[in-house]
Specification:
single chain, alpha+beta, Helix Hairpins, BirA Bifunctional Protein, domain 2, 2 domains, 8-stranded mixed β-sheet, 13 helices, 39% helix, 22% strand
Length: 408
């Protein structure tokens, strides 16, 4: 969340940011509640101070003050509930270099890397290839779990683990700490990372009997790992990468990419998370993006980097870049990676701080980025590396992890 002091001093900026992100939140009402909240806190403190001064002889006055205090605290609790609910609706402020736009159609392409392949034969889509090679089975998955699930089989399984090993080796050398995190988080963690407001909640699978949520990305459990902690400034930036299965409802995408394994309810992913000093977060964001690009270049897949506009940015992020990989059969680029700077938005919600050299406590900045979304990366490999005879070449960088160079 934002600092309420910042909102008080910059109400128009916050209103504009909310409008640009397409998020409805009543800032005027929030500020009114804030004013009332502070007034009730002040009065309650006065009553407590007066209560302490009263001796045992003045029982009637003590009873009166106790009654007044009870009334004040009840009203304060009511105000604070509405105040806190509204505070959670306020989005992070986009950086100045984030393009203003209503949706993904107004994202800005920064660069293209690599050339889309030119086939001397009629190429097939990944699902047709996967079915013929018996490495992807969505029909049997539908029988077992319903739509938007898939079985990976045979060489596709080994290809997934090769991608995981590639990312682990690469990020471990960069000083990231490997983690296999929980795939369930408490409500406070899901809310604290910014995944329970507005339509975001529709994406979550909730285990209501246990008050737990299945994670849509290991960012939630990795960031939540340091909730209510004070980090050592000397150890910053603190960088993790986590491998986990992720779960999303994909609400609102009916009829859109619902066949195959592109937009599914369950998928595997390797996610990077960084905790860094506020003054270094812009540089850290570029660092995460550079790592994503190096991984993509190592696979020799054509891609483009996109600066995400305000309307497509989401609530927690101040800036986000996507990497979109070329899919030949769609004749377009599709998102495979993203990296976001959330500044101190998540840290304030989860109370993650560091102590600076002067001894002052400050909120940390959090950032995240995709190393590999496995399913989408497999799709890109299958389509871009397909051969005339229906086989699929394995990218050279992955061959050292496998005992085959081609899937046939």
């Amino acid at each position: 969340m934002l600092d309420i002091k910042f909102i008080r001093e910059n109400p128009e900026k916050v209103k504009q940011a909310s409008e640009n992100k397409g998020i409805e939140v009543d800032i005027d009402r929030l500020l009114k509640l804030d004013e009332q909240r502070r007034a009730y806190i002040q009065e309650s403190e006065k009553l407590r101070a007066e209560q302490k001064k009263i001796g045992r002889d003045n029982l009637a006055k003590a009873v009166k003050i106790k009654s007044q205090l009870k009334t004040f605290l009840a009203k304060l609790s009511e105000i604070e509930k509405e105040f806190n609910d509204l505070m959670l609706q306020v989005p992070n402020i986009p950086f100045n270099d984030v393009p203003v736009g209503k949706d993904e159609t107004e994202n800005v392409v920064l660069r293209k890397v690599g050339k889309p392949p030119k086939f001397r034969f009629q190429p097939k889509n990944y699902l047709e290839i996967g079915k013929k090679l018996d490495i992807i089975d969505v029909q049997r998955a539908a029988k077992v779990a319903g739509s938007r699930f898939g079985y990976l089989k045979k060489e596709a399984v080994f290809l997934e683990f090769a991608l995981i090993k590639l990312a682990f080796d690469f990020l471990n050398k960069k000083g990231f700490i490997p983690v296999i995190p929980p795939v369930m988080v408490k409500e406070r963690i899901a809310e604290g990372t910014g995944f329970l407001e507005g339509t975001d909640k529709q994406e979550c699978y909730c285990l209501s009997d246990d008050n737990l949520y299945l994670t849509g990305t290991s960012e939630q459990s990795l960031v939540g790992m340091h909730a209510d902690e004070i980090l050592d400034e000397k150890k910053l930036p603190l960088r993790y990468f986590g491998f986990s299965t992720c779960f999303r409802r994909e609400a609102g995408s009916y009829g859109k990419d619902t066949k195959g394994i592109l937009r599914v309810h369950q998928f595997d992913k390797i996610e990077m998370v960084s905790f860094c000093l506020p003054e270094n977060s812009k540089k850290e964001h570029q660092f995460l993006l550079s790592l994503e690009e190096k991984l993509m270049k190592s696979l020799n897949l054509p891609y483009r980097v996109v600066n995400i506009c305000t309307g497509d940015l989401g609530r927690p992020a101040a800036q986000k870049y996507d990497i979109e990989t070329w899919l030949p059969l769609e004749n377009r680029y599709r998102e495979t990676h993203s990296t976001s700077s959330c500044t101190d938005f998540q840290a304030r919600r989860l109370n993650i701080r560091y102590r600076d050299k002067s001894g002052k406590l400050n909120f940390i900045h959090t950032l995240n980025g995709t190393a590999f979304a496995i399913g989408r990366t497999l799709i890109a490999i299958i389509e871009n590396y397909q051969q005339k005879d229906g086989s699929v070449k394995v990218p050279q960088i992955l061959q050292k992890y496998l005992n085959f160079k081609i899937i046939k």
